[in-house]
Amino acid sequence: QRSPPPPAPTQGSPCGSASAKDSVEWEGRSLLKALVKKSALRGEQVHVLGCEVSEEEFREGFDSNINSRLVYHDLFRDPLSWSKPGKALPGGPLEALRALDKRTVSGPATIALDSLSWLLHHLPCPTLCQTLHALSRQDSCPGDTPPGEQVRVLGLLHEELHGPGPLGALSSLAQTEVTLSGMMGQASAQILCRRPRQRPTHQTQWFSILPDFSLELQAEPPLESQPRSDPHTPSVDPTTHLTFNLHLSKKEREAKDSLTLPFQFSSEKQQALLRPGLGQATSHIFYEPDAYDDLDQEDPDDDLDV
Amino acid sequence: MAVAGTSGTGTRSTGSMVAAASTNNVTSFQRRGPRASGADSGCSRLVSIAGTRRSVRNGQLLVSTGLPALDQFLGGGLAVGTVLLIEEDKYNIYSPLLFNYFLAEGIVSGHALLVASAKEDPADILQKLPAPLIDHSYKKECDEDICGHKMESDIKMKIAWRYQLFPKMEGRPVLSSGFGHDYDISKRIPQELIETSKWHGFFLPEKISSTFNVESCSLTSGYMKLLQFIQNIIYEEGFDGSNPQKKQKNILRIGIQNLGSPLWGDDICCAENCDASHSLTKFLYILRALLRTSLSACIITVPTHLIQNKAVIARVTNLSDTVVGLESFIGSEKETNPLYKDYHGLIHIRQIPRLNNLIYDISDVKDLAFKLKKKLFTIEVRENFYV
To answer: Which three-class secondary structure state does DSSP give residue B193?
Structure first.
């Protein structure tokens, strides 16, 4: 499902598209309905493309105020357009999606797609991605419309029905991804928010949905029987388990410092080598006697009696 | 050489060798033609285009990728007529940076640009390019960044004392002027630079017709249109030498973003055994043919982490010339690993072309990492303390 994060927690609702993934254990339609209700209460137009459940079932639980704001495009009753003879076949879901594109022109609006999984089964994935991108892009030109006026696209995706390919493709398109899971009866949402040029942020939000589809955010429940991973995992120290010794004892350090190195010259020679004089006519010879040099000036050949 | 013995014990440069040789008349090799001025152009008969230089190894014409560090690891720059493929990182944060550097370098060097994207309007992409930095301000940034290391540089080196006076290198080579600039990614490129540049944009949702027909040929229609667009530009603007009376030669820099993603109509990211599996490979083949016959260089970013079929990734790599992969640490266990704590990700140079050459021009270093600082994107050799 693509849904913006519940507007309550941190920031105002971002624009663009968002998806929420649910699974068999934690169903997502009630979250979708809760978000739809929130948008409607905010005074926005809400368009719902219903494919998996009937209109009556979707509208159930909403009061008349919200129902009047909801514009329902029904694909559940007649997905293949059999009851309208003479209409060209290639319509169907794609036409319905593209019609949403042109209709929601004025003002801020929310488009809820129930569900993306159904659409993925009926349309080729690249086509669906392109259409969704066109939908979420239509008002998001920077500078044209203020951020509050943009179109938000929510989609419900059943994670278990698809392979990694379509899931990855849709995830890369979504600005926000909400994965539903939970623990011990409490539902939680892992929210991954991708801003265009910034690092993605992860957030986990526990929530529950009341019978009238209001969204109630909750703090994290105390964990009782679940073993908790240590919050301060000790940082890995690479110097452990080495087969060689990396540290020096004090005596070793002293011995190391007092060692004479082979190319360590006197400081005058070092300076002369570091800064060679320009245009030196003669070259200098620096001689530093080694420890083993014999400085005897006598010519040893003098001892030969030749 | 005995010849040089007469020229004194001072510096022995090739200039003095030649001078000595010609005065003694030992060799009969003469330099033909007037001596060309300027360090960039070698022989006077070869073309000299702004923003390019010749490779020192084999004379291949190179353009800068916009990042001097990346140029160094690619053997001096990107060869004209080749494709640079960037394998995107998982959340697509760092590959747009490389893309933008390439385009910004094109604008600053005065090259023509062709930007193609299915996600963003090319005009918007151009607005977000980084601003070029003048040399001395870059050095100031550099110094600010390394002021934390000042303590270490003051300590006199005991063993390597001959290197005391050398500046602390950041892996950045000395550049000749006009090739490779530095950019500040926290600032946008000034509007007048964009307006004076010549650019062409290809935005797929505008070009594709609203009726989705099933493609009969094996190239998806988006790719077909893009190839036709590129071919038209190359022909009309004379990058393939077809209009010789035209003004001075210039390079066309082509940038294609997110190639292979579903937004281009390609389904290699969606399924493992897809119908149009040869679409992307055909596209690359034809694109490379277009590039080889014209004065252009191309950068492509591909979301290879989404491609389901490994064989397709291998084919795409083989069909490109230079391939650079980005691996960011976000979301992986390497993010908390102390070995990688200074960096934001790794760069893998997966392939370097062998153009008119018997050997590859690879640098010895294989372990590269990148870091995104506030103002610039640096590539460094990863210092491995515990090999």
So the answer is: helix
The partner residue sitting opposite A165, judged by closest CB among B158, B269, B386, is B269
DSSP B214: P
ipTM of model: 0.74
Eight-class DSSP state of B112: E
Q: Residue A172: helix, strand or coil by DSSP?
A: helix
A chain contacts of residue B263, beta-carbon cutoff 8 Å: 126, 129-130, 133, 173
What is the distance between the alpha carbons of residues A189 and A5, in angstroms, rounded to a whole number? 9
Cβ contacts of B25 within 8 Å, gap of 6 or more: none
* Residue B319: both structure tokens together: 């069909």
- Nearest C-alpha neighbor of A273 from the set A264, A281, A35, B120: A264
User: In the A/B pair of chains, how many CB contacts fall below 8 A?
Assistant: 97
Q: What is the pLDDT along chain A (306 residues), one digit of tens a residue?
A: 333 333 222 223 334 577 777 776 677 788 888 888 888 888 778 888 888 888 888 888 788 888 888 888 877 877 776 776 554 444 567 777 777 766 655 667 788 888 888 888 888 888 888 888 888 776 544 444 444 456 788 888 888 888 888 888 888 888 888 888 877 777 888 888 887 777 888 888 888 888 877 777 777 666 544 444 444 555 667 677 778 877 788 888 888 888 877 777 777 677 767 676 654 556 777 777 777 777 777 777 777 777
Q: How many residues does chain A have?
A: 306
- Cα distance between residue B46 and residue B37, in whole Å: 12
- Does the pTM surpass 0.80? The reply is no
Q: Are the CB atoms for B170 and B153 separated by under 8 Å? A: no
Nearest CA to B353 among B386, B320, B309, B307?
B320
